[in-house]
């Protein structure tokens, strides 16, 4: 027997002669290794009372099933039995037939290979001991015993892949850039490439291109293939063309074929390799952009542009393929390089590895917060004697409320402190033992339970999430201490997703009693915090989910404010310790922190009203001897306001927050901007950007300006491509809203009235000055 360890690259399961084989490819220190389990049985559960009916139904459909009693029950306290199958075919057929006959089936949607790994608490890395099969290109271990491994961290070889094709998906070229390759496979007759600093591999046709692509991948032998929308587009197109042309794609190790299945998400398997998409990884690492297009992200993160940037990009790609193949090759290669550099700069592969090690999700599986929760929670639930519920088993229909948002008191303030609860929702779950199993056991034994909301009760001893949160919090602190930002960020994302998962109807553990016991407890904590602060003589002007904004006296200096903030946080934490012990006999894991001192601070009104706004404010902070403006929800951070408005707003607040602030300075700034605007000096700042939430054809009534602009542009440019989710750039001209092309006669009055004056009026209204005397007629200014 041979022992090895490594990181999981790909997983599959197959029907074999004696059962189901689990096949796992890993990357070990010595290279890739293929692991094959002994024959396995796959299973789901049904209620014990349904065994007789299930036996009859499965016999009628020639499905072989073995029923075994287990020490498990449902959340409804009904005993269940395991249904074991030696064939995947029978497993899936059985679940379908039983549900068709209204027999409740539990956990049949857990992929057998996922169950195999999660029940062994295997996350990312694994120990494996098995029998070495000799004579294989790569090491192959059979009859493998798998064990959890928390130590192994991989070092991958990667290649960046990008395809070019026409609108029908007919292939033109494939770019490959990595440590051992820098090439573009291009269909066409060979041309002189001596002026290029990369290889062009000429292909006769699509079939030849697909063959040579597979040959290249086998030669460079990457562990990881990266790209931009690479699964949903590039590999989906490659798969479609291979199917249409009758060509297999042996891209896997041992020349094993790629498989692609569509459903709720596209599942791509290349045995022995993993494909990771840049867009999905960025989103899961909580990066935010107006557009996740490669052009936009590369421009922001790298300061580099794609080689084709025209609106009719597809037309230009087709033209280059027909007329200038070397230019297309350069474009194709450049996209590969941009992806590679983004991955390297933002350490996206490191993030994906850490996330897999924490959750057990496949390296390429992005999104998947519900799947990650299931991976972590289900094995623990089984060991507590329960099977997971099906969605909707609770039979409740009410919705839980969102986070607490307090009404604000608009105004201009000299000193505002922000006190922020650290990881509020996870802290509530840990303190009040909020947990799916905990609620089942709490309702079962109410006399010793902790009261939640909407008749929820939680066991003080039988639960898993509080301990899981404790472990995650401790690991995150260790990651911070050891300067491991990727690990810290991944843990933060997982912890913050726990409430979201329990509040999502797509999660099998969703129960509105659970989610409302978290959010309503949050409401109670925020209201209590405000009450205590007011008892101590302070004024609270705003509160949002986990943050409380406290007004201090204008005469206080920065040092005094910071000392008060630290003292208030300490006193609130001490009071929670006492209250929770006296009222609930619970240990306190709530922790409020003094986060920020704003001086000055501006809270606006809701536009057109006198009441205070929510989730919108501006403040000035001082850090390391330097001051900076912080905008929340304002025009400077909203993509649907122009750069003109954003720049003007910053200038306005620099005046407002200055010692010399007066109305005349505001007037001068406004006049200066208007003068330069009409002189054309700000033309490059006048572009609006708005995302298409629907397909253009879906907009029928109340058509917004960006949609009108896009429709008019398409009417004159029928070959242009505008898709749902695309960010539309448009401007206001004398003809109204027009799609931005860079050459327009602007209607400057629109920008004065819609972008500049509302900002001036917002400040004047809140700062107590009547704006009517300042600009009595907006149009008569000019």
From TrEMBL:
Annotated DNA-directed DNA polymerase family B exonuclease domain ranges read 104-297
Task: List, alphabetically, the Pfam families matched.
Answer: DNA_pol_B, DNA_pol_B_exo1
Q: Which residue intervals define the domain DNA-directed DNA polymerase family B multifunctional in the entry?
A: 377-739
| SMART domains reported for this sequence | POLBc
Catalytic activity, EC: 2.7.7.7
Q: Which UniProt keywords apply?
A: DNA replication, DNA-binding, DNA-directed DNA polymerase, Nucleotidyltransferase, Transferase
Give the reaction(s) catalysed: DNA(n) + a 2'-deoxyribonucleoside 5'-triphosphate = DNA(n+1) + diphosphate
Matching CDD domains? DNA_polB_II_exo (cd05784), POLBc_Pol_II (cd05537)
Matches recorded under InterPro entries: DNA-dir_DNA_pol_B (IPR006172), DNA-dir_DNA_pol_B_CS (IPR017964), DNA-dir_DNA_pol_B_exonuc (IPR006133), DNA-dir_DNA_pol_B_multi_dom (IPR006134), DNA/RNA_pol_sf (IPR043502), DNA_pol_B_thumb (IPR042087), DNA_pol_palm_dom_sf (IPR023211), DNA_pol_type-B (IPR050240)
Q: Which family does it belong to?
A: Belongs to the DNA polymerase type-B family.
What is the protein's name according to its record? DNA polymerase
The protein's organism comes out as: Pseudoalteromonas lipolytica
């Amino acid at each position: 027997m041979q022992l090895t360890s490594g990181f999981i690259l790909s997983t599959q399961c197959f029907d074999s002669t004696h059962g189901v084989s689990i096949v796992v490819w890993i990357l070990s220190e010595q290279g890739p290794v293929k692991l094959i389990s002994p024959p396995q049985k796959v299973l789901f559960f049904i209620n014990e009372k349904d065994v007789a009916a299930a036996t009859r139904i499965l016999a009628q459909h020639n499905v072989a099933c073995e029923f075994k009693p287990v020490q498990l029950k449902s959340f409804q306290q009904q005993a269940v039995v395991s249904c074991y199958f030696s064939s995947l075919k029978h497993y899936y057929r059985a679940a379908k037939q039983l549900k068709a006959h209204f027999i409740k089936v539990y956990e049949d949607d857990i992929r057998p290979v996922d169950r195999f790994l999660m029940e062994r608490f295997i996350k990312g890395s694994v120990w494996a001991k098995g029998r070495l099969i000799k004579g294989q290109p790569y090491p192959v271990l059979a009859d493998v015993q798998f064990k959890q491994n928390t130590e192994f961290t991989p070092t991958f070889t990667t290649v960046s892949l990008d395809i070019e094709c026409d609108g029908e998906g007919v292939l033109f070229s494939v770019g490959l850039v990595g440590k051992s390759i820098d090439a573009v496979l291009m269909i066409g007759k060979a041309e002189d490439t001596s002026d290029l600093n990369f290889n062009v591999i000429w292909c006769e046709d699509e079939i030849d291109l697909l063959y040579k692509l597979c040959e290249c991948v086998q030669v460079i032998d990457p562990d990881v293939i990266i790209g931009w929308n690479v699964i949903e587009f590039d590999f989906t197109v490659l798969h479609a063309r291979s199917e249409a042309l009758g060509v297999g794609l042996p891209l896997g190790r041992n020349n094993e074929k790629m498989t692609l299945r569509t459903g709720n998400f596209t599942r791509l398997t290349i045995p022995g390799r993993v494909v990771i998409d840049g867009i999905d990884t960025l989103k899961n690492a909580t990066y935010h952009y107006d557009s996740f297009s490669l052009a936009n992200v590369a421009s922001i993160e790298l300061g580099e542009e794609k080689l084709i940037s025209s609106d009719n990009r597809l037309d230009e790609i087709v033209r280059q393929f027909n007329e200038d193949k070397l230019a297309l090759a350069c474009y194709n290669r450049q996209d590969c390089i941009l992806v590679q550099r983004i991955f390297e700069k933002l350490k996206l592969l490191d993030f994906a590895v850490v996330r897999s090690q924490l959750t057990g999700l496949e390296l390429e599986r992005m999104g998947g917060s519900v799947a990650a929760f299931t991976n972590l929670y289900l094995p623990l639930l089984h060991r507590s004697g329960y099977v997971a519920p099906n969605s909707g088993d609770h039979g409740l229909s009410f919705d839980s409320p969102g986070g607490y948002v307090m009404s604000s008191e608009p105004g201009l303030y000299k000193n505002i402190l922000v006190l922020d609860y650290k990881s509020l929702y996870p802290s509530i779950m840990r303190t009040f033992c909020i947990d799916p199993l905990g609620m089942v056991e709490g309702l079962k034994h109410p006399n010793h339970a902790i009261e939640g909301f909407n008749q929820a009760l939680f066991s003080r001893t039988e639960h898993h999430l509080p301990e899981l949160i404790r472990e995650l919090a401790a690991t995150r602190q260790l990651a911070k201490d050891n300067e491991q930002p990727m690990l810290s960020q991944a843990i933060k994302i997982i912890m913050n997703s726990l409430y979201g998962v329990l509040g999502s109807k797509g999660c099998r553990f969703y129960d509105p009693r659970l989610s409302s016991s978290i959010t309503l407890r949050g409401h109670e904590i925020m209201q209590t915090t405000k009450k205590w602060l007011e008892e101590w003589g302070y004024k609270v002007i705003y509160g949002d989910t986990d943050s409380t904004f406290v007004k201090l006296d204008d005469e206080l200096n920065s040092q005094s404010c910071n000392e008060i903030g630290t003292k208030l946080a300490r006193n609130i934490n001490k009071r929670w310790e006492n209250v929770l012990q006296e009222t609930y006999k619970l240990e306190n894991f709530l922790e409020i922190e003094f986060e920020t001192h704003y001086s000055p601070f501006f809270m606006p009104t809701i536009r057109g009203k006198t009441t205070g706004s929510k989730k919108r404010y501006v403040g000035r902070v001082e850090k390391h001897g330097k001051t900076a403006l912080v905008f929340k929800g304002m025009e400077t951070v909203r993509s649907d306001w122009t750069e003109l408005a954003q720049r003007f707003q910053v200038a306005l607040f620099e005046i407002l927050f200055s010692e010399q602030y007066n109305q005349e300075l505001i007037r001068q700034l406004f006049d200066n901007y208007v003068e330069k605007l009409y002189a054309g000096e700000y033309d490059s700042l006048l572009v609006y950007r708005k995302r298409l939430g629907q397909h253009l054809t879906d907009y029928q009534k109340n058509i917004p300006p960006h949609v009108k602009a896009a429709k008019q542009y398409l009417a004159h440019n029928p070959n242009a491509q505008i898709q749902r989710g695309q960010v539309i750039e448009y401007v206001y001209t004398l003809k109204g809203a027009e799609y931005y092309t860079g050459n327009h006669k602007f209607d400057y009055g629109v920008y004065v009235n819609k972008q500049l004056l509302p900002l001036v009026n917002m400040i004047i209204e809140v700062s107590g000055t009547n704006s009517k005397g300042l600009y009595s007629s907006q149009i008569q200014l000019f």
